[in-house]
Amino acid sequence: MSSDANIDYNAVLADLKAQRDKIDAAIAGIETLLGARALSTQPASNGINNDMGPGAFLGMSIVDATKKLLKARRQQLRTEDILKALQDGGLAFKSENPINTVGSVLNRDWNSGGDIVRVARGVWGLAEWHPRLRKRSGDSKTPDEQDESVGKDEAGKELV
Predict the structure, then answer these.
(1) Pairing, β 77-78 against β 123-126
(2) What is the mean pLDDT of residues 94-108?
(3) Domain that holds residue 100
């Protein structure tokens, strides 16, 4: 009699996934400890872990710093949270309204088909996480919007 006949693979799979989640959480915790400022006692005011350090973005562009931040956080972020993290990481802003500067720069990158995409109004992520939201260079429409206009002339009339 085969011992495989009595194995509940659904239960085994569920157990392995639960263990994987615990391991991923442990890895994230250790990565945070390694990247955190030495013995920082101040928690992040917005609930987002600011573990990039005071000089993490020195000399970087807003787009490059935001890509680095999003990759490190592994989650989409609001413009306000991006601005706070960039400032905490040493990126200096000269404008009177830096949140508008960050939003404009990220929107320009998105519109040019860059690596940062707008997930929702004021919410940004990486194109690799949301490939359907990436715009092609020079297009004003997302790929979903482009699909709707396929087979239409310039006036929007169906081509036969």
Answers:
(1) antiparallel
(2) 94
(3) 54-141
